[in-house]
Queue: 3 jobs
Job 1
Amino acid sequence: MGLVRHVVCAMSGGVDSSVSALLLKRMGYHVTGVFMKNWDSHDEKGVCSSETDCEDAYKVCKMLDMPFHQVSYVKEYWHEVFSNLLKEYESGRTPNPDILCNKHIKFKHFYQYAVNTLGGDAMATGHYARTSQEDKEVFQQKYTPPGRTLFRDRFEIRKPVRLYQGADLLKDQTFFLSQISQDALRRTLFPLSGLTKDFVKKIAAEAGFQHVLKKKESMGICFIGERNFEQFILEYLEPKPGNYVSIEDGKIMGQHKGWFTLTLGQRARIGGQKDPWFVVDKDITTSEVFVAPTTNHPALLRDTLKTDRFHWIAEEPPVELIRTQMMECHFRYNNRMPLTPCTVTLNLDGSVWIIAKQPMRAMTPGQFAVLYKGDECLGSGKIILLGPTKFTLQRGQNCMNCTSKDTSHHKLEPIS
């Protein structure tokens, strides 16, 4: 009898991770299910489903005759994800905790626990994504402990593992995996890579996983769940009221409870206003939030952004980009938006400029710009700088036109 490989599967109590565990078992692996607790429900006034989720994950493991473990990353999540989230909001940016959660918790702490503590040959998750590796190649990878040397051994020849979109493009989750390390990706299996969500539900129904099938899909902040965002954030940050100000004429439209409760592009709930207004800019020095009267107002449209040091999943930028410093590809900064053609410029410090083929709505500092070449997810960088809006450019053009008209009629006088 051949060697039976040990796979540690992250179990959330949902349908995707439950079916992933089932498929791994059917492939003949020895599978261990692990539920991660990353948020302390005792700190919350709201309803927290983590205990129910844990029970649901345990039930699936019992049905599949799999060992079950529970591990807590409450402290790590607080320090490495949630504290960062609060700092970003206070700075006027809009973070993406789901990307950071995958980077720091699932594909760092959980990965190390799976291979070191539990002795797994590989880890698995229920993400809709795939890699360039066959399963057998995953088991040939060796674990490299972090931090032994400052730099990776330059004589070690490694063919990078690529991250690709899964078969179900509507459920594709590579956006949320765009910051994970090459080492973790090399040892990860995605059992749902070739399946659609509908087919996954069908497998779950046939397996008798009724208790996970009837659950509503989670759409809230990673591990915190669906809560009223304004109420939630005001439990951790002091209210900092300020004015809603019209971007068009500077008129005060109403008051908000803090710029960190709002993000660019969202509808501003302004008391006494019949028509909808949308957030287009924030000034954290004055607590002013600028609003515009239409959802696609020119003050929300721009085509240029800059990221911080870009995280390349293959560890190095594409050869084309290294050679010419420029590359045509696609990007998105919101997992629900379609992929958009763009030109990428690589800077000496590892950051990138991204210029979209047409102006895009609500590019937002703090969000991640994720690059794609075909169906390959290349990686991501946090947006730190935005180019001018269409509104600013139009206003500048109008001023220039006014100035040229004025100077043709009036002689300039020296300033005394």
Job 2
Amino acid sequence: MTGGFCVPVLLAAWLAAAAAEGLEQAALPAEESRVQPMTASNWTLVMEGEWMLKFYAPWCPSCQQTDSEWETFAKNGETLQISVGKVDVIQEPGLSGRFFVTTLPAFFHAKDGIFRRYRGPGIYEDLQNYILEKKWQSVEPLTGWKSPASLTMSGMAGLFSISGKIWHLHNYFTVTLGIPAWCSYVFFVIATLVFGLFMGLILVVISECFYVPLPRASSERCEQEQRPEGAQGAEQLQDAEEEKDDSNEEENKDSLVDDEEEKEDLGDEDEAEDDEEEDNLAGIMDEERCDTNEQGVVKEGSVSPKDDEAHPADTQEVVEDSLRQRKSQNANKGS
């Protein structure tokens, strides 16, 4: 009886001890992570001191593979005199836009507000050597508009945060409420149009408030000042046109005078030629008359009076015909 009773008692005691040990282990706090989550409200902490940041997403397999290495690196942060942080791009889209993160996981090194992109494998040994050997000094820093602290990247952060809120709202419509996706798209299109019209109305109101109309006296003076300028321009154009017309008229007159002088010279030459021809013809006629008179003296009885009268008449007609032809030629040349 005694041995049979001891076995259940020992078993119950063992189970009680095991349960108590399990409760003690459960009561022990989990090991606290040394990685500091970064948000839009506390990201400015990286502007002071030396930091290493990791951008990740919970669904990213590559990010999950480097989680343990990142935790080990954070545990040794005090030895390396560096702070370690992480950013969830799903919860903080604004920070992913500020650092312009396009691939995951993404690592950044910050030293007194100067940022550099770390492109290593993300394992503990390589991260440790990157800090101890100061390999980050050979990496080109993100300066100018590329710096996360610049005004440009602040605007980019705003755009990414708005897109993240729209994405969360779309998931709320489609997953939580069960609305079809196309209805959600229609809602966002209408909201975009209404927002654009509202912003346009605000700009019009602002312009009307800050626009100061000119008084009538100043406006009239401006008009009067502008009118003489236009009149002067018109007068200048008219003067230029008149000068052109005068120059063209003078050229035409000069050309007409030259043509008339040439015609007069040609007419004088033709008259001189006509006079010479008339003199020549008159001399020829005189010679012919003399010849006829001599022939009449020599041949008094052999030639009849009719023949003697006919010959001078024929020669006179020939001379007149030649003079007429010459005058008609001169008239044709003159025309």
Job 3
Amino acid sequence: MLSCHLRSLRLSTVVVRPLLLHARTMYVAPEPVVIMQEVEDKGVITLNRPRVLNALNYEMVQFIHPRLKEWESTKRLVIIKGMGEKAFCAGGDVRAIVETVGKPDAVGEYFFRDEYILNYLIGTLRIPYIALIDGITMGGGAGLSVHGQYRVATERTIFAMPEVNIGLAADVGGSYFLPRLEGRLGTYLALTGHRLKGRDVLKAGVATHVCDGARIGELEEALLDLQFACPEDVAAVLQKFHEEATFSKDAPFSLQPVLPKIQSCFSGATVEEIFRNLEKDGSEWALKQLEILKGMPPSSLKVTCQVLKRGAHFTLQECLTMEYRTVKRMYKEHNFSEGVRSVLMDRDNNPQWKPKTLEEVTSERVDEYFAPLPNEEDLEF
């Protein structure tokens, strides 16, 4: 819901244009992909592509970054949310990236760079940043939320990191936050793409608070109503709605029964060792995870395993720099186009990966993904 503080609301990016009538044709100006609102000393960012589950494209990144940078010194808090109830942000607009691979103005040549720079700004912002992750929150949507101070989930929240399944590796700072989840949970989420739902997003350590979906607009209003929005008052409002949330209140963490298995099986130093651990476990759950992993691109599994291992000891900035090196190489390869085709375009879920086996992806090949980029193309903040 948009704020009803109309007296103090100023739409910063919305330009009201008259309808253009020509003969029998009526033209309606397109809506902005991001709505940036200023409500007194607060800022509100609304991702406004509900028809595509608020998938993040380059235009959106261009809108958000400069304004967020400005708000860091002029506002007391920032709220980010998605338009509609289906999704906060279902990820980056990877289809647009695939469609321009190899072309002179390939989107991937600048989208990932500026997306990661935005992720870093969110992670280092000096004012409270509250992400209302109501609905689908995946990939690029995680990058817009998890690095901020607060993440509020609802019963509609579905969180996942599906990069491996489309031929990439954990990115948008995933190499930073995933290894910092309990035990080997982050490795499990990154390699399998497992989806967390509702209160599980909190129990996993991804969300900081929960709120009933029916009250998410009320929570936003309460934050915007704060007279001075000092950090203590922001925290108190979030805690109030968190404690009053009724959905799945007494339900245990759905992964709790298998956390010991996640710890033992996914603690392997290599993908091959993880496979052996799952085979040795032999339980129905372990064999199901093995089946899932065998359907993933071997190169993505191995690169992801490495970024998580390295990222556990890196700063956010170092993680994003590392991820940029891997993604700049991987997005041009066969597996990314094939993964997007299989999952999002043809939707046949029958990808043909190259190479097909773990044995073909040597340690030397994996190391090449992490080498500094040529021509001084490494990420700069």
